[in-house]
Amino acid sequence: MEEEFYRIKRLPPYVLDVVNRLRSKKRAEGADVIDFGMGNPDMPTPRHIVDKLVETVQNPRTHRYSSSKGIPGLRRAQAAYYERRFGVTLNPETEIIATLGSKEGLANLAQAITAPGDVIIVPNPTYPIHAFGFIICGGVIRNMPVVAPGEEFLRALHRAIKHSVPKPIALVLNYPSNPTAQVADLDFYKEVVAVAKEHDLILISDLAYSEIYFKGTAPPPSILQVPGAKDVAVEFTSLSKTFSMPGWRMGFAVGNERLISALTRIKSYLDYGAFTPIQVAATAALNGPEDCIQEIRDIYQSRRDVLVESMSRAGWQIPAPPATMFAWAPIPEKFEPYGALAFATLLLEHADVAVAPGVGFGEYGEGYVRVGLVENEQRIRQAAANVKRFMAKADDILGEYVRNNNNVVPYAGAEKGRAGQV
Q1: What dihedral angle (degrees, nearest 10) is formed by the CA atoms of 318, 324, 325, 331?
Q2: Which of 156, 159, 259, 292 has the fewest CB atoms below 10 angstroms from its CB?
Q3: pLDDT more than 90, % of the chain
Q4: What pairing do the DSSP bridges indicate for beta strands 233-238 and 251-255?
């Protein structure tokens, strides 16, 4: 029992654990840590959704096993949402399955379609499950440095297909993107669908942030709006951000009937679906009033504006993200030679502000940190005040860091992450 298990050996140490352990240590010592590190929505779930859960859970019949595919009413509600929001018609019986959040769905789809050695093209940086869902299943990742959706992306995609042996089976897309906050338009999706059909690629679209977009940004489209996209594409959505329901673990996979069938078959062996009252409440969310979605969106936009303005005055320039609940922030110039992990660690040690180093999302995330809009405006302003004091002492802090790390040399990969710039 001494040898490490096969699948565990395929998983590298989790970079974000360094920051997570330090954050826990600081809090145990009584520090007031302002935590932008996790993408964990802090706003309460809208009242009408909670009320429906409470009402439904009173019925003992709802305490039984549910269906891993999702109750029919929930799948019909998701179909109605896609028709209303995207103009896409879906068959609730064959083209929709409920998942335990989009993350579980992505991981189990990987398990359903991946044979050992299969090549999957994945953006880098990206949300970790996009790559590690396939790695756990024995797949091989072809990293594609993320550039803005457009001609450069398509050229990089053609190169990745041409130079991968064996030929890739799938491409993962994530727009609006976690962590980079980039957005894609429908013309871009049309080009990608054409490439996928030409090269027999499965398209896996993660659309978890479909409803978190800001003024000046068009509502993000679904890849399924492209005529014929259902021939090659499956798409994941989640209620976690749209309705501030992260702990409820409710998401969906929709699209290609063969892929949905494969995911349904895998899940039938693994789970009995979400607790029925949660599914009923999720149905109420999708069928209910949409003013709560706008309220959540407005709160994130206000926080974004406060973050960008207050951090700028503190000496840290953060580009305003067009969408998502994250800012993808280049680390201050003085810290660039030492890398994102060093910057995030020092920021937490000396300013009580936690952020996620970009390398936690792939090697091309170097030079950036992800800042979650998960603290209220007062806390954001307090964080900016802490950062201002931190920046004023940056030379001394870096000098101490170098001495404590045996005269550490500047990080050799400090320029790696510029491909991820928004």
Answers
A1: -30
A2: 159
A3: 85
A4: antiparallel
Query: Reduced to 3 states, what is the DSSP secondary structure of residue 291?
Result: helix
Please choose, from the candidates 18, 44, 22, the residue with its C-alpha nearest in 3D space to the C-alpha of residue 33. 22
Distance CA 63, CA 224 (A): 35
User: DSSP of 355-402, one letter per residue?
Assistant: -EEGGGG-GGGTTEEEEE--S-HHHHHHHHHHHHHHHHTHHHHHHHHH
Say if residues 226 and 337 touch (Cβ distance below 8 Å).
no
Spell out the residues 6+ positions from residue 247 whose beta carbon is closer than 8 angstroms to its own. none
Q: Which three-class secondary structure state does DSSP give residue 5?
A: coil
DSSP-assigned letters across all residues of 292-331: HHHHHHHHHHHHHHHHHHHHHHHT---PPPSBSSEEEEEP
Q: Decide: 201 and 222 in contact? Cβ < 8 Å.
A: no
Phi first, then psi: give them for residue 369, nearest 5 degrees.
Answer: -130, 150
Contacts of 123 (CB under 8 A, 6+ apart): 130, 143, 144, 145, 146, 172, 173, 174, 177
List the one residue out of 166, 167, 231, 162 whose CA is nearest residue 203: 231
Q: Are 242 and 212 in contact (CB under 8 A)?
A: yes
Dump pLDDT digits (tens) for 28-77.
Answer: 999 999 999 988 899 999 999 999 999 999 999 999 999 889 999 999 99
Rounded CA-CA distance 168/121 in Å is 7
Mean pLDDT of 165-187: 96
Q: Return the structure tokens found at 93.
A: 């019986």
Residue type, position 422, single letter:
V
The answer to whether 177 touches 146, Cβ cutoff 8 Å, is yes
Peptide bond into 149 cis (omega under 30): no
Strands annotated E in 185-246: 202-206, 233-238
Residue 107 tokens, joined = 């991981």
For 317-334, how does the pLDDT look when each residue is reduced to its tens digit (9 = 90+)? 999 999 999 999 999 999
If one counts every other C-beta atom within 10 angstroms of the C-beta of residue 83, the result is: 12
What mean pLDDT, rounded, does the chain reach? 93
Q: pLDDT tens digits, residue range 81-119?
A: 999 999 999 999 999 999 999 999 999 999 999 999 999
Sign, CA dihedral 414-417-419-422, equals negative
- Left (φ > 0), alpha (ψ -120 to 50) or beta: where does 19 sit? alpha
As a whole number, mean pLDDT of residues 152-181 equals 95
Beta strand 353-354 with 356-357 is unpaired
Torsion sign over Cα 14, 138, 247, 63: negative
